[in-house]
């Protein structure tokens, strides 16, 4: 109903739009005629116009003057020629509007009109009137009771026979007139037999049936004799209608379909002689329509055998009819194909077959395979006999056969095996298309790969199997990957095609598919190993849960190893075959390694667990082997070089995390999670890697020395001592700052020793690592891009500030452990012990700076020490002085005063300029 309403709405909208277009076109046509008419009038000069006076100089109220503006506006004026003297443009030819497309109602009306008015119109109108007259005569005679019903029916039958006889006699002199009469005669005889059986019960079912068969057979003979498809259609339409007209509701299905078999064999015989497509359509629609209706209303399992046999016969008949039609209908491009018979028989026949076989296990699958075998065998036979002339039919049969093979798989197997078979079938179709230089099988093969992948992903589930590798999940994914690899290999070069427009367009897209198809296959290759790694063993007893083959942590690490090893195998393939895309996965192995580490940390696993350390060694070994191979190959692509450098940098950061995890393993074994040993792990790891980079890679900080270094410094020295080290430097700097401010230095089970505890040692190492790294960068020739800030004095000031904070927090931790001051900011600030220590410490630092400045004659450094000493004085007045009567105040003031005397004696203010014999001023 929705489709019908939509059709009506669309037809109405189409009619309205076309009406508006016709009105607009008609209006435009009238305007053009007016314009052309006005142009013709404006070029005519009246006889009364004086010589030499322009024709357009006539009175304003004359027609010429009135038409002039319109003519001037309607056509361009040449600047060098006055408008009045331009030659008249030839009138434009009238625009021919394309005929409007007829709608459904118009098509039906046109068909009736063509039948009535086409050919011998008078005869056809006469036949219609004759039928009406015979009906009226029969009704009148029946109402008046003038003649017995037998006589009336006999008279009508004789009239039909007379029409048939006259038409047959006149078949050569008046062919159209004769065929019309014969068609009318056949219809009259059919209706007479039907009325005798159904209306008046004068003829038993079997004789009536026989009479109609005789009429049908004679009509077919007449149609063949006179080469009249219209008469044949009328005869067979009546023949197929006979069982329906004469049915009493209790007939045998075997008798019904035996009769239809005879009719279809007759149609097949005619198809052998004639290419009457309309007759084939009548038989096809009637046979399968009645079969479908009977199957829905009357079919029972007891009818299976007979129904199956008749269905096979009907399918074979109409497949043969399609072949015969193609044989009898040659064209310039090969024999024509009746798509309705070709595809309709397959679809309708399989639909009925599926309904019959539904009661059997795998019945639908075997039915699909049977249809596939039929069409593929016929395609093979036709290829042997007439490959060129039957090319379109062969392609259609191959497509139908492959379609049924594809359909059989999900009907018989689950989605995992289905996807595997579809992928293999897609590869086969692509290979056939490649060998035959045809683009459609190749496109079908690629489409099947995508469908197979979707089917596998839709059916993916827990892999429960006792068989390693030989299980549906692993093999299903692998059977998608391997055909994809094969197709990607075939796509490396330019494949032949038929040079049609569609083939050329497909070839453009096909040329870009090799790399995506390979990566598609690589993804499913990796997926196959992932599902195998996550395989579970079925429970030993019924009802028991399945058991994973590997633990969760081992599954994660084996997945990482599988991905890295797959990339390694792909790189080997790339090196052996010079296949560039096969090397791509090897450039991204850092990603699975990093994700594997994150998953390991979330699951509570450690790198040094067994067998984790073995897996990590293998994975890292393969990773660095691939880094080496990718670096040593000739690379002309800047993007590839940058990617390789980024991989080296990221690998350094990953090693930093792995080292930290190893240290956490020691913390875990020593049960030191609540101590400072645990808090410094990540910082110590970053310090250790930064020191290694500064000492190891820092040796290669001069471009002139790079050729003397082996891989990786010879290629990526800057990547190590600058790009990889810079984030570690930031981490060490701010990590040390936070550690100094937050860590209490708890060293249980060992006693706290100032400067020899994990916190103070880590902070000292952090400061040393930063200094070493700065020296390596400052000595680099040239400086790395973006490293201009490293040699500046501001960097030294930042390191000095960090050292000042570190020294101050050493005193805080000492006070916390030895004087029992609580470890929080308020308690520490309120402690006069802390304040006394700060005063003495800052004075000592000021003394050291000022002595150093005096020795090096650095006025700025001396002023910095003096500023710190001034800060001590301010603190004495504002903070320490408030400790009335406290011993700390006494110690503070005495110590600071004595130290200031020492400063004043040993480190007076240096002069602004050094003495001449002192040489140049040295930098700090």
Automatic annotation (TrEMBL):
Residues 39-98 are annotated as: Disordered. Pfam families: DUF2339. Keywords: Membrane, Transmembrane, Transmembrane helix. Signal peptide: none annotated. The keyword Cell cycle does not apply. It comes from Collimonas rhizosphaerae. PANTHER family: BLL2549 PROTEIN. Residues 55-78 have a biased composition (Low complexity). The keyword Transmembrane helix applies. The chain crosses the membrane at residues 122-143, 149-169, 176-197, 203-225, 230-248, 254-271, 278-297, 309-326, 333-356, 362-383, 390-411, 417-434, 443-460, 472-491, 512-531, 556-574, 581-599, 611-628, 649-667, 679-698, 719-741, 761-783, 795-812, 832-853, 860-878, 890-907. Residues 79-98 have a biased composition (Pro residues). This is DUF2339 domain-containing protein.
């Amino acid at each position: 109903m929705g489709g019908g309403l939509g059709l009506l709405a669309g037809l109405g909208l189409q009619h309205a739009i076309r009406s508006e277009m016709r009105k607009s076109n008609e209006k435009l046509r009238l305007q053009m005629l007016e314009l052309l008419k006005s142009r013709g009038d404006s070029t005519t000069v009246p006889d009364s116009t004086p010589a030499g006076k322009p024709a357009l100089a006539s009175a304003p109220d004359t027609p010429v003057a009135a038409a002039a503006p319109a003519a001037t506006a309607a056509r361009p004026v040449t600047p060098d020629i006055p408008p009045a003297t331009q030659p008249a443009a030839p009138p434009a030819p009238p625009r021919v509007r394309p005929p409007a497309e007829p709608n459904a109602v118009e098509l039906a009306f046109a068909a009736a009109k063509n039948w009535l008015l086409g050919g011998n119109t008078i005869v056809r109108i006469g036949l219609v009137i004759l039928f009406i007259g015979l009906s009226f005569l029969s009704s009148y005679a029946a109402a008046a009771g003038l003649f017995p019903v037998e006589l009336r029916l006999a008279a009508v039958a004789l009239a039909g026979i007379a029409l048939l006889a006259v038409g047959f006699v006149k078949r050569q002199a008046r062919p159209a007139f004769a065929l019309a009469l014969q068609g009318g005669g056949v219809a009259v005889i059919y209706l007479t037999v039907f009325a005798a059986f159904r209306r008046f019960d004068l003829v038993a079912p079997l004789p009536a049936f026989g009479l109609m068969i005789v009429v049908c057979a004679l009509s077919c003979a007449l149609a063949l004799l006179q080469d009249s498809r219209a008469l044949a259609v009328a005869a067979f339409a009546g023949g197929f209608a006979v069982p329906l007209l004469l049915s009493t509701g209790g007939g045998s299905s075997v008798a019904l379909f035996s009769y239809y078999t005879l009719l279809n064999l007759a149609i097949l015989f005619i198809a052998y002689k004639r290419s009457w497509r309309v007759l084939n359509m009548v038989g096809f629609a009637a046979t399968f329509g009645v079969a479908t209706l009977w199957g829905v209303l009357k079919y029972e399992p007891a009818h299976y055998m007979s129904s199956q046999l008749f269905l096979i016969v009907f399918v074979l008949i109409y497949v043969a009819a399609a072949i015969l039609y193609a044989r009898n209908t040659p064209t310039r491009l090969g024999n024509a194909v009746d798509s309705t018979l070709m595809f309709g028989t397959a679809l309708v026949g399989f639909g009925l077959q599926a309904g019959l076989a539904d009661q059997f296990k795998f019945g639908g699958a075997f039915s699909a395979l049977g249809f596939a075998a039929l069409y593929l065998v016929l395609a093979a036979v036709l290829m042997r006999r007439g490959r060129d002339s039957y090319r379109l039919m062969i392609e259609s049969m191959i497509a139908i056969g492959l379609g049924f093979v594809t359909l059989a798989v999900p009907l018989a197997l689950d989605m995992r095996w289905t996807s595997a078979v579809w992928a293999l079938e897609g590869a086969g179709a692509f290979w056939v298309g490649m060998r035959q230089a045809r683009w459609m099988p190749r496109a079908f093969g690629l489409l099947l790969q995508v469908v197979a992948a979707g089917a596998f992903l839709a059916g993916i589930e827990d892999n429960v199997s006792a068989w390693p590798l030989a299980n549906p999940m692993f093999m299903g994914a692998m059977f998608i990957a391997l055909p994809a690899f094969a197709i990607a290999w075939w796509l490396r070069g330019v494949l032949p095609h038929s040079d049609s427009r569609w083939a050329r367009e497909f070839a453009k897209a096909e040329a870009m598919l090799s790399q995506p198809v390979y990566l598609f296959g690589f993804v499913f290759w990796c997926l196959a190993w992932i599902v195998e790694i996550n395989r579970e063993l079925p429970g030993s007893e019924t009802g028991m849960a399945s058991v994973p083959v590997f633990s969760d942590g081992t599954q994660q690490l084996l997945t990482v190893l599988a991905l890295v090893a797959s990339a390694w195998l792909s790189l080997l393939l790339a090196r052996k075959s010079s296949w560039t895309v096969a090397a791509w996965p090897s450039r991204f192995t850092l990603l699975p390694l990093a994700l594997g580490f994150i998953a390991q940390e979330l699951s509570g696993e450690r790198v040094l667990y067994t067998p984790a350390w073995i897996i990590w060694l293998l994975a890292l070994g393969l990773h660095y082997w691939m880094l080496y191979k990718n670096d040593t190959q000739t690379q002309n692509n800047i993007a590839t070089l940058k990617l390789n450098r980024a991989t080296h940098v990221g690998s350094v950061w990953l090693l930093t995390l792995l080292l930290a995890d190893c240290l956490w393993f020691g913390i875990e074994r020593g049960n030191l999670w609540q101590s400072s040993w645990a808090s410094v792990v990540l910082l110590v790891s970053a310090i250790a890697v930064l020191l290694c980079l500064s000492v190891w890679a820092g040796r290669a900080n001069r471009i002139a020395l790079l050729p003397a270094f082996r891989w990786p410094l010879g290629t990526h020295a800057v990547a190590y001592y600058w790009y990889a080290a810079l984030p570690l430097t930031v981490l060490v700097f701010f990590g040390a700052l936070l550690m100094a401010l937050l860590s209490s230095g708890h060293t249980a089970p060992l006693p706290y020793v100032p400067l020899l505890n994990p916190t103070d040692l880590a902070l000292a190492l952090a400061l040393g690592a930063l200094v070493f790294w700065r020296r390596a960068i400052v000595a680099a020739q040239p400086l790395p891009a973006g490293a201009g800030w490293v040699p500046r004095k501001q960097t030294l000031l930042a390191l000095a500030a960090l050292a000042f904070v570190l020294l101050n927090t050493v005193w805080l931790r000492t006070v916390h452990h030895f004087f029992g001051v609580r470890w929080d900011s308020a308690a520490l600030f309120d402690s006069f012990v802390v304040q006394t220590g700060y005063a003495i410490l800052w004075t000592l630092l000021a003394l050291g700076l000022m002595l150093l400045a005096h020795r090096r004659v650095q006025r700025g450094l001396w002023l910095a020490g003096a500023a710190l000493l001034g800060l001590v004085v301010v603190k004495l007045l504002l903070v320490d002085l408030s400790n009335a009567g406290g011993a700390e105040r006494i110690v503070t003031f005495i110590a600071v005063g004595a130290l200031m005397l020492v400063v004043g004696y040993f480190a007076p203010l240096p002069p602004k300029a050094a003495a001449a014999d002192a040489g140049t001023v040295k930098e700090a």
